[in-house]
Design goal:
Blueprint lengths: L1 H18 L2 E9 L8 E8 L8 E5 L6 E5 L5 H27 L1 H5 L3 H34 L2 H7 L9 E6 L4 H25 L3 H8 L3 H16 L13 H30 L4 E4 L18 E4 L2
Antiparallel strand pairs: 1-2, 1-5, 3-4, 6-7
Subcellular location: Membrane
InterPro entries: Marvel (IPR008253), Synaptophysin/porin (IPR001285)
Membrane topology: Multi-pass membrane protein
């Protein structure tokens, strides 16, 4: 949310303070000769800071003519690079804000939106840092090139001791200093947003979903040690929990039922078996001095 709010504002402040700058320098030349004294010279410069194209006319005190003087230095490359990065960052921030608010589903579809956003964020972070450093160095050179002392040394009349030259107005650098500060703030803001954009990508989610190989190997080794350390099947294991104990109790109950069923079948077979017959030896029965008849005896075993 901070990125969506502050990125466009900081980008506007960065390129607006740099691109809309106009400096003004005024010097005065006082000739000791018969020419008019207190001649003021106005020097104006601004974005894109091609100082070698800025010229002004200065009087020659010992002659009745003027000379054309050009400033030194071309700092347009760093200034334009800084402003271009600011404009592109503003446009992308504005476009990203619209996507976040109105097209969130399409942004997260197939994980393409977060990946593109991550790459663009990293690119803008590097571009802001590079452009801010280049612009800070160029601003230092611009200040040196437009220093009133250096400008007065370019005027031939001011190099003569009998003439007097002075600066009546110097340029203000607060606006360009502010642009440099906003450039580095943008670099910090975009660099800090890299982590939040990275969390939305599939790379971060994949690392959270699938553990590393070392952790999986440690877990598998611990699981094997737990399995081998169990002395009986009745003790539940941490890896399986109550499911293993329920399976053992269930199998034992089925086994008991099977034994009871087999015992009932054996008992029923004993109950419905045929009577057994036994043919023994001949037994002689004596009854009151009577000879008992001999013959095989049949015993019936009734169950």
């Amino acid at each position: 949310m901070c990125m969506v709010i502050f990125a466009p504002i900081f980008a506007i402040c960065a390129f607006a303070t740099c691109g809309g700058y106009h400096g003004y320098l005024q010097v005065k030349v006082d000739c000791s000769a018969r020419r008019p004294n207190n001649l003021s010279i106005n020097i104006e410069f601004g974005y894109p800071f091609r100082l070698q194209q800025i010229h002004f006319k200065a009087p020659l005190c010992d002659a009745s003519r003027e000379e054309v003087i050009f400033l030194n230095g071309d700092f347009s490359a760093a200034a334009q690079f800084f402003v271009t990065v600011g404009v592109l960052a503003f446009l992308y921030s504005f476009f990203a804000t619209i996507v976040y608010v109105f097209y969130q589903n399409k942004y997260l579809k197939n994980n393409r939106g977060p990946l593109v956003d991550f790459l663009v964020t990293v690119t803008f972070s590097l571009m802001w840092l590079l452009s801010s450093c280049c612009w800070a160095k160029s601003l230092t050179d611009i200040k040196a090139a437009t220093n009133p002392t250096e400008v007065l040394l370019l005027i031939a009349s001011c190099r003569e001791k009998e003439n007097r030259c002075a600066t009546t107005q110097e340029p203000f650098w607060s606006r360009l200093n502010t642009s440099t500060v906003f450039g580095f703030l943008n670099a910090i803001l975009w660099s800090g947003n890299i982590w939040f954009v990275f969390k939305e990508t599939g790379w971060y989610k994949t690392g959270q979903r699938y553990p590393s190989r070392t952790s999986s190997r440690k877990r598998s080794s611990e699981m094997r040690e737990r399995l081998y350390s169990e002395s009986s099947f009745d003790q539940p294991d941490d890896g399986f929990g109550p499911f293993r104990q329920d399976s053992f109790t269930e199998s034992r109950g089925n086994y008991d039922k099977q034994l009871e069923r087999q015992a009932s079948i054996n008992q029923s077979q004993v109950n419905f078996s045929l009577p057994e017959t036994y043919l023994g030896k001949a037994v002689i029965y004596e009854r009151e001095n009577k000879v008992a008849s001999q013959g095989p005896a049949i015993f019936v075993n009734e169950m």
